[in-house]
Amino acid sequence: MDKIFNKEDVLTGITADQAVVGTKGYFGSGLRTIAYNVERNDVHRLCAVNEDETSCFTDEEGLDYLFFLPADRVKNKVKEPVYRPIKTIDELYNFLVSSVVVIDFNNTIDKVGVIFSSVFELKGKNSGYTYFRKFSRIYSTNNAIVLDDCSLEYYFQNYEIKQNGEFVPFGIKDE
Fold this sequence. Notes:
This protein is α+β, with helices and mostly antiparallel strands.
């Protein structure tokens, strides 16, 4: 819970006078319920603050709760993007084309031409060394896509590639 919110920020019957009607937040019968609602982003508006010690806070649905956490008291959680290995030839083509810094071919070369005529900047995950690489072969065998004699899983596990000025995993951002 400490990673999501501070326990001191949760309003109770004792601190109910700090609650502002109309504030968005998370309701619950205990800290775990509030943490669960924060994880699910189950936000509701505070509609009433009651004098009753067993049901201090009322949400817009008319339900009463013991505890209320104002939404602005939740710690900002920045979700790191999750990447997965590239699975299809189309994904590979689109991924590599998006990694090309400048395409100056008068739009006459297809994706394969752009990939094979471009130099890519790779960085080793373990070594941190930067490599400049020109790919020369892409083929598929036994349901695996091979790029210059290495599987896409190998590139995903061992390299990052420069896209839009920063290194990202050699894979597809999983939405």
